Amino acid sequence: MTHFFEVISTKVGYSRIGRVLISKKPKIYGKTPNILIPIRNVLMHQLDFIEQFENHDFFVITKEIFLKISFIRDKFKKTGFIFTHTGKLERFQQILVENSDIFFEDNIISIIPFNIPTTIINKDFVHKEIENYINSAEKILKNNPNLNFGITIKIFDYPKLVNLYFPLIRNNENIKILNLADIFDNFSYFRNIIGLLGEIKTHLDNNIIIMASGRVIPKFYPILIYLGVDLIDSSYLMYLSGENFYDSIEYLLPIYKIKFLPCSCVACQGKLKNLLEDKYSSEKIDLLCLHNLISAFNYMKKIKQYISYEDFRAFVEKSSLDDTNVISILKVLDKSYFDLIRYETPIVQENKIVKCFGPSSYYRPDFQEFRVRTIENFEPEPWTRLIILLPCSAKKPYSESKSHKLFHKAIRKFSEFPHFQEFILTSPLGIIPRQLENIYPVNSYDISVTGEWDNEELNITVEMLVKILEKYNKDIPIICHLENGYLEIAKKATSKLEHNFIFSKIYGRTTSKESLQSLENLIKEQKDKYIVNESLPRKDFISKTWIRKFIKILDYQFGPGSGVKIISSGIVLKKNKASTQISLINSNKNEEIGVFKFKTGQISLNLKGIIQITQDPSSIKSNYIMFDGEEIMGNTLFRAGILNWSSDLIPNNHVIILDKKKKNIIAIGELLVGSNFIKNSKAGRIVKIYEKAQF
Amino acid sequence: MKKHNSKITYNESLTEKIFFYRQQTLKRKKKYDQEQLNKPITFWIKKERLLGEIGKEFTIILRTRGCDWALGAHGGCSMCGYIKDANIENVAPTQIKNQFDYALSNKLNEINKDTDNYVLKLFNSGSFLDEGEISENVRRYIYEKIASIGKIKEVVLESRVEYITPDKLIEIKRYLKNKYLEIGIGLEAIDDYIRNNYINKGLLFSDFKNAIQICKEHNIGVKAYLLFKPPFVNEQGAMDDCENSIKELIELKVNSISINPLNIQKGTFTEFLWFQKRYRPPWYYSLFKCLKRSLSQEDLKTVRILSDPSGAGTKRGIHNCLKRECESSAKEVLRKFVLTQDLRELDKETFDCNCKKKYKMQKSYY
């Protein structure tokens, strides 16, 4: 059986972009995430409906008659159809048998329905019903081994029972879609929702499409996609239209309240405005339904734009600010599921401004990843004599801001400045060592700065500051050039550390002449108080800011010690003409070993660079994949070719590809997915190879 | 006495719930006095479809101790609340005779004077053939009386299958040889799973088929009751189920099929679901659609389709939008269809209500 769905790229949270093979000849794909537009008699009578959606990728059919109407095939020939039946499973089976030739065509896949029972009594009742459904579904799947199917998962508020479905899904490879039918009906059970999706993601093939149906409204589409849903059935909007609800995305409004029609769709521009006052009008329901579907369709387009090209996490947060349950989902996911989500969320986002809205952004997975990695991988430079704590700036990287230029002017008056370690205090990221100011997300985040910090912001930053400063000798003086909330952080940290904190005097602002003078005086006073015992390796190198940065960026990316390994053999930096990247050149051999790209904030080491870091491939413990062979053909590594892998793979991170004996590095590439996906899939693209070893 | 099929698997969660609500009802129940026990629960005359003509029905509902299934450990059927009309304790044979006599003496004149032929529907909200409810002696008494009324051309009794035995059918035939006899059996659905897991009927389709066989052997007709939209079943599921059942029953050459859209009866499990908005009685539109899909005019030459829904047009019974015009139009359509057995009647709604649009948009969510 050929593949049906493949993940093209993973995004923040569980979100992902994928494509569904709609037709094999010619090859036509439908993109996910997407919505399913219902095809019903009541809608097909409207010409506007057909015109509006004729180019849409996916439709859901619930009437047998539409399987047979050639009109639909002609009009929507580049479309994927999902068929399901809204009644009994036995009737679905009959339809399947009666229309088997149609289901063997490419662009229709049927979902085995689970509509009955509509309600339940208790857990035992549910257990029995699910088992009954599974037995029936199993028979259908086994009787039609060459047909792809979707199965419906209903849990009736007992999320743990989802495990009952797992053997069925694992044992039947023709299951291509999981239709979550009642999971999203009630967002107040948000822990159930998160738990269930976590179970699915960690126990089932990640190449199966996750579909959401049931009582789902467009407002929740962003969070659903964030939770890993690929397809959303919009049929519930028909029900809401029947109840006279007008969907403005932010709110569902009863139509009688609508006075301004905040939409310019064909329905709102047409007759709908004349029918607003009409209490009983079936035409109004038609138009309302058309509007609601168009509105959902457009919202999904917006989501697709944001997930592909903008910071999708911020979009999800923005869309959920008025819904406490969705905020709770984000909070719980961020805090309790970070160990799962960190291997699903790309480590960098290119050219994106990451907006922080407040508490909902504090524990974003990419922010947390930054904090965890910085704490784990940032090791003090042994030559550090003085630590300086500075406030952040709105402009990124900080060193390009007016305030930091002034700080630098004061600090660099001293020839010993390479011995000073600057840390920038910021919310919500925490503590940024100066050397890491160019990496993601430090280079991209933006938050409103008022000088007021809330408790959570304070705690995050204090905790991180303490963890980082603990790594330093307690005799190294710490100069704090801070005011307001920043100052409060430093003061809170003093109680948890034995270090000597010295506070500069702030006159008005930290950038005022007098304040800067105070900083300068303090540096002068403190710079020789701590004597460094260690001799400096390659003094000429560490005095260069970019080399200092690269040592720490390499440590951040590849683990502590990596930076020194690269630098120790001698290095020359070369910026390109457009100033978009800096090449790292081994000065001894005069060969490029890597490139730092400003848009990603990452260093891409080539094979030579990687070999310099690793030396002995068998000792590599992280960020590797073992290829089931000696040589990779093509530029993509697929799941089928993978023998083993480290459990710390994160999408967009660089990965070393080793041969099956772990003796040679055979390629390096950029991960398209994380280790969880590799663990839970049998197919799919895993790595985009950017360099292969020449044997 | 009772001998329920041991092969039936019950849904214990449901049984427990039904039993609980049944007990609650029985606790609140008042005792009937002697006067009440000497009169039937109710009786009436109204227009009805007879085998080959439009005639009238004379319905008598006798008060007995109540359905043995409902009074048993399994709690009875999930939608049935008729136990509240029963006496729970045994009713003396003379009292049952008196009940029958009371109804008959009230309506006999009217029947004799009428030009229409009659069907006598003799119900007891249980099983007429259950010795525990109506003794052999009383049954004979009633048969004798019916036999003497010429206008009554058809007689319908109701019973669970376990009480339908060759002896009892021979006995009926002996007394009522000149009349067309039909035994109504609450099959509810041909799907064993729905019948026993959602309705808690305690009946297998195979037992029903055996009962048909016995009736046919004794030249007695079978009227199958189908429950339209049992609890736990959605609108489309109800249509699928009923369509399937009708087709199968026609194949089995059942004489009459009475379709009963579920109505919410007091003190029942379904009432509990309904209160919690977890069940909505069916829409008329669904019933009409189902009838049109499952029947052909040809079928109606061999089978009689009946439907006289209780609580029709109210929120507890089959209904559309509860608008008066909409409900009465639908009610009339159904009535005319039953009387004429003409499928075209189902397309003759006199009121084109906008709720049909709503129904079409929403039906998969009911």
Task: Write a concise keyword list for the protein shown above.
heterodimer, A: 695 residues, alpha/beta, 8-stranded parallel barrel, 6-stranded mixed beta sheet, 30 strands, 37% helix, B: 366 residues, TIM Barrel, 8-stranded mixed beta sheet, 13 helices
- Oligomer designation: heterodimer
- Radius of gyration of chain B over all CA atoms, rounded: 20 Å
Quickly give the CATH architecture of chain B.
Answer: Alpha-Beta Barrel
Would you report the number of β strands of chain A? 30
Q: In DSSP terms, counting alpha (H) and pi (I) runs of 4 or more, how many helices of chain A? A: 28
- Average predicted confidence as pLDDT of chain B: 95
Q: Uncertain runs of chain B with pLDDT below 50, 5 residues or more? A: none
Straight-line distance between termini of chain A: 35 Å
Beta strand % of chain B:
15-25%
Q: Beta-strand percentage of chain A? A: 15-25%
The whole-angstrom Rg of chain A is 29 Å
Order of helices and strands of chain B, N to C?
HHEEHHEHEHEHHEHEHHEHH
Query: How many structural domains are formed by the residues of chain B?
Result: 1
The proportion of residues forming helix of chain A, as a percent range, comes to: 25-40%
Description of the structure:
The complex is a heterodimer of chains A (695) and B (366). By secondary structure, chain A is of the alpha/beta class. Chain A contains 28 helices and 30 strands. In chain A, the strands form seven sheets. An eight-stranded parallel β-barrel of chain A has the order 4-5-6-7-8-9-10-11. In chain A, β8, α8 and β9 (175-180) form a beta-alpha-beta unit. The radius of gyration of chain A is 29 Å and the shape is globular. The model of chain A has no long low-confidence stretch (mean pLDDT 92). With 366 residues, chain B is of the alpha/beta class. Chain B has a single domain, classed as TIM Barrel, CATH 3.20.20. Chain B contains 13 helices and eight strands. Chain B has helices at residues 12-28, 34-37, 68-71, 93-113, 136-147, 166-175, 192-198, 205-217, 235-251, 269-275, 284-294, 324-340, 355-362; strands spanning 42-49, 54-61, 118-123, 152-158, 180-188, 221-228, 256-261, 304-306. Chain B has an eight-stranded mixed beta sheet. The longest helix of chain B is centred in the N-terminal third of the chain and has 21 residues, at 93-113. Classes of the chains: A alpha/beta (695), B alpha/beta (366). The interface between A and B is medium-sized, with 35 and 35 residues.
